Amino acid sequence: MSSEPILLGGLFSESGAIADIEASMRRGTELAVAEVNAQGGVNGRPFELRLCNPESKVPLYASYAESLIVEQKVQFLLGCYMSRMRKMVMPVVERYNALLFYPVFYEGFEYSDNIIYTGSTSHLNNVPLASYMFERFGKRVLMVGTDYIYPYESNRVMSDLIYEAGGEKLGEYYVPLDATREDYRKLMQQVVADRPSFIFCTVVGDGLRHLYDLYWELGLKPEELPIASLTTSETEIRSIGAEKVAGHITAASYFQSVDNPINRQAVANYKRMFGDDQVADMCWEAAYFQVHLLAMAMCKAGSQQVDDIRRILPTLEYPAPQGTIRVDGNNHHTYLHARIGRANAQGQFDILFETSQNVAPDPYLISPRPGGWVIRDRRGS
Ligand code: ACM
After folding, report:
1. Which of 28, 46, 150, 267 could form a disulfide with 287 if both were Cys (CB 3.0 to 4.6 A apart)?
2. pLDDT tens digits for 233-254?
3. Bridge partners of 278?
4. pTM, two decimal places
5. With a 6 A CB cut-off, is 204 part of the ligand 1 pocket?
6. What percent of the chain has pLDDT over 90?
7. To test ligand 1's pocket by mutation, which of 83, 155, 282 has the most ligand atoms within 8 angstroms of CB?
8. Domain range 123-257+339-377, CATH architecture
9. Of 24, 99, 3, nearest in space to 286 by CA
10. Over the stretch 266-311, which tens digit does the pLDDT of each residue have?
11. What does the domain layout of the chain look like in residue ranges?
12. Of 157, 133, 150, which Cα lies nearest the Cα of 248?
């Protein structure tokens, strides 16, 4: 039996605007690789992770993906945070029949034979978040996002939800990935002028710090005018400062505070490997479980060929930190959990709502309503 390593390729930026969250995804991947290897690898073969640093620059994702596949003979790629980057990598993995595992919430409306999508799409974050916010805070919504496909598409879905609910869209504002504090200051002046019921946020990367900082400077109050975000996780909060995000809302499939033994063990292993000051987040968790899922698929298939893995994946369930997950063979997206959390003073989330079981993926948003699946109100709030 061969003991040769099985190569995995990691596309995780260590510099630039999205380095914070991609480094977290890289650490989740490294933790899972270490765990798989400690358990004997895949039938005796360890995983070996080949890492690239695309520096948060769009073209580098595609060129590193190609060099991993062609020069280093890697068939399985992991990573990419922004949809803009995934869109660049997609034709590369398709050209060489490699498989990208993409561990990030995104806009949906996409399928590739060569991508496995392990993050959530709108029916698991926009839809329950809109329902929660409309009921508690109102329906006058101001939207702010980074200037690229994910915020455009996410705002398109949110706009439909607002109109269907008889609400009002006050504005849809986009800022460049490298926008300055002054750009955000202008935006926040608009917020003060418009006084929305809440701000819907799909800003990614370093810009989030400016957004929450300026909100804080203006002395606005989250209990009156919260930021409802799809992009603000524990990792961003650690950089921004817990006191500036406390009280604001995020929708995600996973929070570090999820209370079950599998999550507690994964977070304990993470802190042991990377230090007590690390925090987990939704992209870390998907980056973590997808490596375990891949190892399981290779063991079950008795093969490391992309075609065999693609075939076997939908037959497997994996007990992830968020709860049990599995991949849908028809659309390559994942059955996941939905949660809404309120950031607390410790930089963690108090979970307000969560599904009692995983929910079938709906990447084309055929059912744009939170009905049809059970949501449990944990706090009565
Ligand atoms: C994203 O671009 N999917 C966060």
Report:
1. 28
2. 999 999 999 999 999 999 999 9
3. none
4. 0.97
5. yes
6. 94
7. 83
8. 3-Layer(aba) Sandwich (3.40)
9. 24
10. 999 999 999 999 999 999 999 999 999 999 999 999 999 999 999 9
11. 6-120+260-335, 123-257+339-377
12. 133
